[in-house]
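Q&A log
Question type: sequence-to-structure
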Amino acid sequence: MRNKFEFYDIVTVKSDKPTLKKINGCKGVIRGMAQNEETLKWGYGVLVYQEEEVWHVMEEDLQSTGRKANPENYYTGQSIKVIVDPKTGEGKLADEK
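Response status: OK
Response body:
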């Protein structure tokens, strides 16, 4: 099943689910997405503007606004360097001693 939404799509939460009551009717932007391997349903990480936090919302609980957010509004341009120990798979910041 193909996903209905893409990264940075602006959506409105439209749901009667009790778990989404707080954000029902709120707008947000798609920041993450994942498909359930068994049901093939899509779930999204939606940055809800009003709450200033990311909520997990299923595709059937979202409505398109037809608008897209500018990705540059979500990135500072900063990055970090991580060194991974090949034996353990553990990582640490490169500038940590």
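Response note: The CA atoms of residues 32 and 80 lie 21 Å apart.
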